[in-house]
Q: What sequence folds into this?
């Protein structure tokens, strides 16, 4: 995720939101100070401790079904808002809204699977004469801190599971994209969720830190930079559980017998979707040396045809980066790679203050930032390799491990990559950014902690309780 520390832009007591392409103001949300958050936490804590206040499952199901229906009615409005505040092209913003609606529906479906089981007691003499079973209970108040790059769907992944399992939740959106979060919370209210069960809190980093480290928080959900996520985890109150989702530098290995014609469009989508601002975006592509330049040039030819512009325009395929400083950072990293001997085959230049041209680099230095850190921008790197073992070793060389992929027609090569790549998911003949919302989604090592995906998050936000009955 983005490594730049965000800053609150305030107008009196409001957070101003701008279109990241033209920097024009498009809206604002109220800033929540600590005194208000402290009050929310106290209400939330008391609400959860009094079990008579808990919402029964049938009410939560009804609320979520109504939420999905309202989202469908507001489909185009939600998509435009994603594009307008987050810079994701409309064509992709519409896909995000569809996923978000489906995600709410998944929460309803997963509730029927969130069940306990019988525990056998008479396996030893000590347990004889007893029967036991488990149930799953909500874990308690949730604090969710989210990222900008999927401003509606990420909120759904963090908030809807909490609502589904009966956890009250306080959600802090990214400073750049709070409008989609606010819209979703308002839709929950419209669908019948009492306000005390979900609170929208836009606040600065110190206030957010006080929120997530408060002992009244039972579960902390974080999507964002590794630096911030691991720091906050280290400060959690004793007993607070958490899930962290960070980024990576996703590797792709191309076997010499891969289907090039079908591979190029897939890699272009995986590398330049949302201008590379995706935690599993294609970044490092390892190709047999004899094919490296040919494949890199094919990618460059495709990248140079992508339409860059304001995300709210239908023709736009690559939008802006979220902030002008991110454009400057990407430009610095590309120049470092160029100076070190990397060959730029397409892009390699700013397109104004808010956008960067889709860029393909061939053989940048292995110690350059573009080779060792998450670019989080519209750039992919192609490297030549001598053999498959070398490619896998280089793919696994960084302290990040999230999703990876291999392109091949050879089953043995595919299974070798699946076995040996250090990744939580290995895609065969598909790009690294592929995801469905019901599947496990998790970073390894510095890339995250615990597992995302609607059902997995719902499980993490609940805990087992066992009843043992002596007959």
A:
């Amino acid at each position: 995720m983005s490594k730049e520390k965000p800053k609150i832009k305030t107008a009196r007591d409001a957070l101003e939101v701008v279109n990241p392409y033209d920097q024009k103001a498009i809206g604002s949300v109220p800033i929540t100070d600590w005194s208000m958050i402290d009050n929310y936490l106290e209400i939330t804590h008391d609400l959860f401790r009094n079990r008579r206040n808990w919402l029964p499952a049938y009410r939560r199901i009804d609320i979520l079904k109504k939420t999905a229906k309202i989202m469908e009615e507001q489909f185009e409005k939600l998509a435009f808002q994603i594009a307008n505040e987050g810079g994701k092209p409309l064509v992709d913003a519409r896909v995000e809204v569809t996923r978000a609606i489906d995600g709410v529906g998944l929460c309803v479906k997963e509730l029927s699977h969130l069940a306990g089981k019988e525990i056998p007691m008479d396996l030893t003499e000590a347990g004889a004469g007893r029967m036991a079973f488990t149930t799953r209970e909500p874990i308690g108040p949730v604090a969710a801190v989210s990222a900008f790059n999927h401003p509606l769907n990420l909120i759904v992944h963090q908030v809807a599971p909490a609502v589904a399992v009966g956890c009250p939740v306080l959600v802090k959106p990214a400073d750049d994209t709070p409008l989609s979060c606010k819209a979703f919370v308002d839709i929950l209210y419209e669908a019948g969720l009492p306000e005390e069960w979900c609170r929208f809190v836009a606040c600065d980093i110190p206030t957010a830190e006080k929120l997530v480290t408060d002992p009244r928080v039972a579960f902390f959900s974080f999507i964002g930079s590794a630096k911030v996520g691991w720091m906050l985890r280290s400060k959690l109150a004793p007993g607070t559980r958490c899930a962290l989702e960070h980024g990576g530098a996703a590797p792709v290995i191309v076997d010499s017998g891969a289907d090039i014609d079908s591979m190029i469009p897939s890699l272009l989508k995986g590398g330049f979707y949302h201008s590379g601002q995706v935690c599993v975006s294609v970044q490092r592509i390892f190709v047999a040396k004899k094919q490296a330049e040919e494949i890199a040039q094919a990618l460059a030819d495709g990248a140079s045809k992508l339409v860059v512009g304001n995300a709210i325009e239908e023709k736009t395929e690559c939008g802006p980066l979220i902030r002008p400083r991110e454009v400057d950072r990407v430009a610095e990293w590309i120049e470092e790679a160029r100076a070190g001997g990397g060959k730029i085959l397409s892009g390699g230049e700013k397109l104004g203050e808010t956008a960067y041209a889709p860029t393909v680099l061939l053989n940048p230095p292995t110690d350059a930032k573009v080779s060792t850190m998450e670019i989080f921008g519209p750039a992919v790197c192609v490297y030549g390799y001598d053999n498959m073992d070398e490619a896998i070793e280089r793919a696994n060389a960084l302290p990040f491990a999230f999703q990876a992929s291999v392109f091949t027609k050879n089953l043995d090569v595919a299974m070798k990559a699946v076995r040996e790549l250090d990744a939580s998911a290995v895609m065969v003949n598909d790009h690294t950014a592929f995801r469905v919302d019901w599947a496990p989604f998790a970073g390894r090592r510095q890339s995250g902690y615990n597992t995302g995906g609607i059902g997995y998050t719902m499980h993490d936000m609940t805990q087992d309780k066992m009843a043992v009955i002596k007959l």
